[in-house]
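ugh ok fine here u go
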Amino acid sequence: MLQSYLLESARTMGVAMTAMQADQFAVYHELLVSANTKFNLTRVPDELREAADRNYLDCISPLAHDFPADIHSLIDVGSGAGFPGLPLSIMLPDVHIVLVDALDKRVKFLQSVIDQLHLNAEAVHARAEDAARRPELREHFDIAVARAVAPLNVLCEYLLPFVRVGGHMLALKGPSLDAELSDAAFALDTLGARLERVENAEIPGRDWSHRLAYLEKTAPTPEKYPRKAGVPEKKPLIMAKK
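structure:
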């Protein structure tokens, strides 16, 4: 059963999960599988353990690695099917979470899950570049997160405008992180951030692990960033070659 597997795996990871939270994950999984038959949200492995490891435990793995304390607001940019924002919302009920996605059908799915699970969250239909221009969202959040959205130098331009000075950006990345960090040095300096730390995020019983990059917001992001929709991806912030 999904609930018992999640509870045992979370315990092994050092993450405190309640039976009620495990039940919420089970409902989320059912809603995701059902929605995926109607339109393609994300890859949902048929094998339950595979789905739990890759979609749910992977998303809550930051909670086992000195996740920032005393946070009250979090934004998940490019949330897609809700990863990692919905699993984090289940696990962090006192944190208000905003999930941003550019596709309306995904946003409607996200909001339906939020409503059915009574989560402290909301879904917003917008591109990251446009959402970051909204006064109620810009430099408002304690932490901004994303998983499998873009290379780190592009991701910094998407996420850092949402983060208050002193807050954090968290990127859930794969084995390419070291190269991405090198490429992102100029973006960090330009957007007002520094690398805080990197953690390996292991899943019990798996021979693969993902990596977590924590950045600290050290200065306000210049008003001209993010650039217009599509520009960060087409023209990433990189140091000009001499």
